[in-house]
Design a protein that fits this description.
Protein name: Cytidyltransferase-like domain-containing protein
Shape: globular
Helix content: 25-40%
Organism: Orchesella dallaii
Number of strands: 12
Order of helices and strands: EHEHHEEEEHEEHEHEEHE
Distance between the termini: 32 Å
Structural class: alpha/beta
CATH topology of the largest domain: Rossmann fold
Largest sheet: 5 strands, parallel
CATH architecture of the largest domain: 3-Layer(aba) Sandwich
Radius of gyration: 19 Å
Strand content: 25-35%
Length: 287
């Protein structure tokens, strides 16, 4: 069995359906013993190059589509392949020169049959290998296989707009990030795809239980995930031991939190106002 994999959805700019995600994650769970599974929604160009979708999508559509697809993937992965470290990537995760996703890929699984046409593009093993070799770290003899999708599920033609689907200069998101479960990944993802310059990860310094990972381990895992997702963005850390951190003295344009911790961000904004600073936008994510 392979250790690390890449799952390529070759749907167009529309959102990948839940049934399609389930089918392919179930397949990946059987093929990979452990390790990392990258997930990417890919529309190959005629030359086999990177996705050209980013050139035609506006920011709102790109954020809304990836927010929907990644949340579906992480939601299903929680039960279908809990032994895998799932990492959803999008256009900005690639095309960064030698700064490629960090884990070498052994197995590439493509959601379509060999020779299936996507618009004017033909997805063949050669095209897949070229794209993967140009954008990912790979093992010396990585394999490519195609996964049949027998469902006739209709793909929606429109994607509902996500809240605050725009770019912000400095974005902050916090948590314990213990064992980097999929809810953590959703929070970091929602923050990262709205970030233009700097992503600040607030990591709780206090271990909540005896089984909690050490602070440095949690910090390193959050960094590895964030760096794979947005390698072009500066990522900094803000250790904290209380929900307020030190954000009252920082300039944040957007703060991201779960429904359980959004009240802490409202308190942060209150303290920012008291210090003469503009309040940040708050994005609440239900995870």
């Amino acid at each position: 069995m392979a250790s690390n994999g890449l799952l390529l959805f070759t749907s167009t700019r529309y959102a990948v359906t839940k049934n399609c995600i389930k089918l392919n994650l179930q397949h990946a769970a059987k093929k990979l013993s452990a390790g990392v599974l990258y997930v990417y929604q890919w529309l190959p160009s005629p030359s086999g190059g990177p996705a050209s979708r980013a050139k035609t999508e506006d920011v709102l559509t790109q954020i809304s589509r990836f927010s929907l697809v990644s949340s579906r993937v992480y939601g299903e992965a929680q039960t279908l392949c809990p032994h895998l470290d799932i990492r959803c990537l999008y256009e900005k995760s690639l095309n960064n020169g030698n700064n490629r996703p960090s884990v070498p890929v052994d197995l590439v699984m493509v959601e379509r049959n060999t020779g299936h046409t996507v618009g004017t593009n033909v997805v063949t093993p050669f095209v897949v290998r070229k794209f993967v070799s140009q954008n990912f770290r790979v093992s010396n003899s990585f394999e490519v296989e195609f996964v049949n999708d027998p469902s006739k599920e209709k793909v929606p033609s429109e994607i509902p707009p996500a809240p605050l689907a725009q770019l912000f200069g400095v974005v902050g998101v916090g948590g314990t990030f213990d064992k980097m479960h999929n809810a953590n990944k959703i929070l970091i993802t929602e923050a990262a795809i709205r970030c233009e310059h700097e992503l600040v990860l607030g990591v709780d310094k206090i271990n909540k239980s005896k089984s909690s990972e050490p602070f440095e381990t949690r910090k390193e895992k959050a960094l590895a995930f964030g760096t794979d997702l947005v390698p072009q963005i500066k990522i900094t850390f803000e250790p904290f031991s209380n929900p307020n951190g030190t954000t009252k003295t920082e300039h944040f344009d957007l703060l991201v939190a779960s429904a359980e911790t959004v009240a802490d961000l409202e308190l942060i904004n209150k303290r920012k106002k008291e210090n003469g600073l503009s309040p940040a936008e708050i994005l609440k994510i239900n995870v």
